[in-house]
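BUG: 3D viewer hangs when loading the predicted structure for this chain

Environment: internal workstation, default settings.
Expected: structure renders.
Actual: progress bar stalls at 90%.

Input used:
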Amino acid sequence: MLDERDGQVYRTVIVGNRVWMAENLNFAGNDDYPLVLERSACLNFDDDNCALLGRLYSREAAMDNVSCMFGVSCDIGDTLVRGVCPKGWHIPSNAEALALVNAFGDELGDVRSAKGWSSYKEGVNTSGFSMPASGCLDFGDDRFESPGKTGYVWAYLKGSNMRYLIFRGPSDNDVIIHSGYSSNIFVSVRCVSDDTLKVALSSSSRVSSSSVSSSSSVKSSSSSVVSSASKDNFFNSDVTYGSLKDSRDGQVYKTVEINGTTWMAENLNFAGNSDWPLPKNYSYCYGGIAANCALYGRLYDRAAAMNSTTCGYGKSCSLYDGLNRGVCPDGWHIPSEEVDDLMDFTLGNRKTLRSVDGWVDREVGANESGFSLVGSGVRADKNYVNQGRFAALWYYSTGVVQNYLVFSGVEDKMYLTENSKETVYISVRCVKGAGAEPASSGSTKSSSSGSSSSVESSSSEESSSSFDKTVLFNSAVSYGEMTDSRDGQTYRTLNIAGRTWMAENLNFADSSKLPILEGNNRCYDDDPSECEAFGRLYSREAALNDSRCTCYNGTCPSMSGNVQGICPSGWHIPSKSEAEQLANLNGNQASSLNSSYGWATDRRGNNSTGMSFVGAGVYQRQTGSVGFKGKGNYTNLWVYDVSTPNENWYLMDVGKSASGNGTIAVMDDAGYDPFYTVRCVKN
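Structure tokens produced before the viewer hung:
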């Protein structure tokens, strides 16, 4: 289920004839939900716990009504209460809470997650309900109670008593309904779909989302992800289809002839392999769920769709004139002029191309053509949006902007559009007819500009529009996550030496929100894919968000406390003492802090701490010394000291070399007006 208010996606599960969220809500509120902004919290006031366990809400925040404050009779009607839930979902009613108790009352192990409980209380979660022991906040005493031992979920019941479900560990091993009013508590929210399912259920009245079977498709509300019982429902039984077998993986697709052109009648689901690294590394299943690929096909970025790194985000995709095979099977190609013919064919009847299934109710098509397009949604940068409401298909065109064909079920429109603001991942429908292949579509290795030794620079990784950053991190380390609300980018975080650091370099560049960024930030070699992979390089004044704080004018003011600078709200530029603590962590040895990737071969670290520094290099702006240098050999990180504001403090990291372990130290002699990286620290 997609929460369109903030783009978060939640798994769901069927219990009886209701669809429940299978994880706790983590909506943090906005101007339309001021009660949530003011009266919700993360366990131990740690954002990482919200990402893991969901938020804790007061009753009035959960019901989104001040009439439900502690000690007040909460009478907001007899119908379903949406409260803090997304559109099409609601707070569990008393009857729904009772039904849940009846389903799981004496078998709590079936409903408890295998993680999120104290070790002796872990469940087996056979139901898929996946309830963690998120505890509660006693707001009166400002104290968190029972994390790891008990889970709580709000339900709606008229009256002064606060109604909630309690999931208890093995000493009680049950789920009960409780009406408490002795203290003002904040607990979790699990929303229920407004739609009642009409499906054949087992005698236990418990069916997981992975085992739903029905003779007809089951559609959720307009705000949720569409679930179909069978792909066969997508096609038109009155149309005679052909077939295409992809020799690369053996998958078979239906095909259909429209206006003399043979199209695939379903979206491509080729996942790539060692011979096709771009689709392997830069395509996704909607929501990260494999079943969505099986139903709706894969979502590809432009580089993967065209099977060429020269078509990555922000790059001029000018392969050649003529047909382009791209990611398509042998003998097929990415559409080009065929999209115009397709638009002409519809003659304003867009529904003739859309399936009668695979869309939310208002957006279903008629599919007289047999084209059978489904609402496969899109991955925009890192967010999955609009499954069931929107579909888009790549077509080949030259130029920097990304061009594609859009089908909007909501507006019943079909149009060509372009996107130059972000990486997008959308569907591929191939057209019959052999297309040429790029001269080199796979990985290559080259020497980085300005580096004295060879650096791995795989074009399918560092220079594509969607570098897989997992190679930078230590898989044995437990990371947190932080989302920059200004542009939606998500960063891994790490608690190290008692402080929470970003575990990757900042890549914020919106000068409309921070005007000082204009002319004061660069991607290495001015290649946008370098920023996506390794973060951005900033001048000192940009890092500190103060035009007086250049490296030379000596008028940077003394700013007391934490200095936010360019960092997101709640985070700050590292202080000198914080940087020194990090540098001293392992005797000023860099290897434990440096990634095993992103450095010249002889300078890689073991990254045992998980800090994952990379050899991002620098940019020098001073006349006579302009240019990029140091990629793969070193990296510098901006630091600020309140007592010496005009000293150009930075953390210098020289990667491990053949002669030693490499060094890391706090320095203050930044020369040549440099642009360095930024790593923020949580306040």
